[in-house]
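Posting for a labmate who doesn't have an account.
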Amino acid sequence: MITLTASAAEKLGGIMEQKGMKESHALRVFVKGGGCGGMQYGMTFDDNMREDDNVWEQHGLRVIVDGTSLFYVDGASIDYVDNLMGGGFHIDNPQATSSCGCGSSFRTAKSHTGEEMPESCGHH
């Protein structure tokens, strides 16, 4: 399961409302290969459900994660931080064994197939 904080849900809900898609779309969280850590987070608004999707509702928003991505982000939380250094979404992922300074790239100990993950770039 992925957890949205109240501030992340408020920010996402506001964006969805501005775009007129709050009722029809959900937040899709996914993981793809790439980035300096080996894996990258992604988020998008989606109105297309897939067979292997997991769906949760939190703070009035639906969150969708496909089965493969869930392996890498199960237990993660998404927060929105707005401070003097700038605002943005932050993913706290207990599955990540290391992450890069970019904040959107991470590494886990093993892949969903059980293989050892390659070494990261060293930007921890």
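Reply:
Got it, the structure tokens are right above this. The CA atoms of residues 57 and 63 lie 6 Å apart.
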